[in-house]
Amino acid sequence: MGVCAAQGARPGGRAARGAARGPAAGLRGRGRGPAAARARRRLRGLPGGAGRLGRVRRAGRGAAAGGRHARRPARRGERPGGAGERPGEGRGEGPGKRRGERRGRPPVSAAVETGASLWRSREWQRLWFSQAVSVVGDYVFNTTVLLWIGTTVAAGESWAPAAVSGVLIAAAVPVLLVGPVAGVYVDRWDHRRVMMVTDLLRAAFVAVLLVIPLAGGDWPVWVQIALIYAMVALSSSASRFFNPARFSLIAQVVPAGHHTRAFGLLTATSGTAAIVGPPLAAPLLFSTGEEWALLINVASFLVSYAAIRMIRMPGTGTEGAAEGTAGGAGDGERVGEGDGEGDGAGGESAFWPEFVEGLRFFVRNRTLLVVVGTVFVYTFGVGALNVLNVFFVTDNLHTEASWLGTLNAAFGVGSILGSLLAATLARKFGETRVFALGILLTGVAVLFYSRQSALWAALAFLALASISVAVVNVVVGPLVLHATPRHLLGRVNAVLNPATYLASILSMSVTGFLASTALRDLDGTFLGVHFGRIDTVFGFSALLMAAAGLLAIRPLSRTAAGEPAAEKVAAAEGAS
């Protein structure tokens, strides 16, 4: 600029000299007053400002003198900007750290965003560790409570089985009643803080039960049972807030490309805890007393709280959410909602509109409808195994009921293996195809399992079924995250989780009723194949699962190819 102006001016004239100064005018030469000093200070304060100020001065001197500092075309392999420009100057790209960024440590999730191992993220390590400790404590606690009531509180009573069933009911009712309500508030609040508070609340609820052994059994039995029911129900209610908050936190901490891997690791951890936790409960209860089992669960919640507290949320250093680090969030996310920062200013008057907003989005989203419908049928089928497997061992496999533990161990090992394989399969074939084919293969494996009469063959087919069950359980999470904007995740989970739990309850009720009444005396042969009451129920459940998986392939393939991204759908709905 200065060179071109100087060429069009009279040599030696005032205009030529002023133009020759070019960008340096006002900052040097006659620009020595207070205004020029303020301009220089402002420029130095900008990112890369010192470098720009030096280039301005060199450009002015080079233009005036026509010498070596004049701007020239960039050589091959050199960044545009002149010979004197150092890499990173002018755009704040120099080696200096941004304010608040610690030297030697990358920003949150930077390692996993660049394609490195998921375990490079300290935030993921803390989240995984918190859940690993917590879920082991949960399994120890759940088994302890059932044994505690059945063998100590209600020992020798004819109504002891009903008292044990009451614990399961106390844990189930909040899923159906509190779950849909919790989703709205989880979407409003900060997810990390919700997890921390609910961990402390659950630790307090379990700690309250310590007063029963400390009282030495002096309280009436009905008071002890009522207190256990109340604390179990309150702890389950707190979990209705914790679980969707954890689901949303995974979307914030883990980048979209690692969602399946993250859910697979969490599922494998839960499967391992299911194998390790219950066997620990009985020795603890009968050797040291129920108070130690309760203390272990309290400690697990406190450890989980400490680990979650150390999580640095992306973008803010400690709390908040990253912009665009996870799928299902972004442009369609409203301020204050996606990160749980909404203050709920609307109070109760805003609850129903927010609840209806989530329900409307769920009903209008084809992917979510297909997923929840398929999962409902699939859960109904798997629930039959949980209820009737002990009778299958004695009636069909003709072995002692004690072998049920071996079958459960085979199922647990297969679940862990499937959880670890899920990410690889999803990366190769895609989540939608793995989900639908996984349910189809589960149905086929259960169908073959129902026709077995030898223990070793039953173990093999049950292990195969458990692998596909685990794979399906893992990919459901990424499918929901991909289809749902982040500010609606809590409300969508508030529909999905109760529906799944309702399917499980219906399965246990219906299959148990059929095996005990309508199919009780079934014992016949058709086309050379023998049918009894248990294998008939298993076979019908298997056919339901296979049909659900087969019917889900085409709709999910269509939606994966043609359905708009979650954030675009949310933005369009918000605009309307």
What's the arrangement of secondary structure elements?
Blueprint: H1 2-7, H2 14-21, H3 34-45, H4 49-65, H5 110-113, H6 122-153, H7 160-177, H8 179-188, H9 191-208, H10 211-214, H11 221-253, H12 259-288, H13 290-309, H14 351-364, H15 366-395, H16 404-429, H17 431-450, H18 455-483, H19 489-516, E1 523-526, E2 529-532, H20 533-562, H21 566-575
Antiparallel strand pairs: 1-2
Please outline what is shown here.
The protein is mainly α and 576 residues long. The protein contains 21 helices and 2 strands.
CATH topology-level name of the largest domain? Growth Hormone, Chain: A
Give the CATH superfamily of the largest domain.
MFS general substrate transporter like domains
Give the class-level CATH name of the largest domain: Mainly Alpha
Q: What average pLDDT do the residues reach? A: 77
String of helices and strands: HHHHHHHHHHHHHHHHHHHEEHH
* Weakly predicted, low-confidence segments: 1-31, 62-115, 317-345, 565-576
In terms of quaternary structure, what is this?
single chain
Task: Report the C-alpha radius of gyration, rounded.
Answer: 32 Å
**Count of beta strands:** 2
Describe this structure in words.
By secondary structure, the chain is mostly helical. The chain folds into three domains: 1-60, no CATH class; 122-323, Growth Hormone, Chain: A (Up-down Bundle); 358-576, Growth Hormone, Chain: A. The chain has helices at residues 2-7, 14-21, 34-45, 49-65, 110-113, 122-153, 160-177, 179-188, 191-208, 211-214, 221-253, 259-288, 290-309, 351-364, 366-395, 404-429, 431-450, 455-483, 489-516, 533-562, 566-575, and strands at residues 523-526, 529-532. The chain has a two-stranded antiparallel sheet. Helix 9 (191-208) packs antiparallel against helix 13, helix 11 packs across helix 19 (489-516) and helix 16 packs antiparallel against helix 17. The longest helix is centred in the middle third of the chain and has 33 residues, at 221-253. It is globular, with a radius of gyration of 32 Å. Mean pLDDT is 77; it is low at 1-31, 62-115, 317-345 and 565-576. It comes from Streptomyces hoynatensis. Keywords: Cell membrane, Membrane, Transmembrane, Transmembrane helix, Transport. It holds the Pfam family MFS_1. GO terms for molecular function: transmembrane transporter activity.
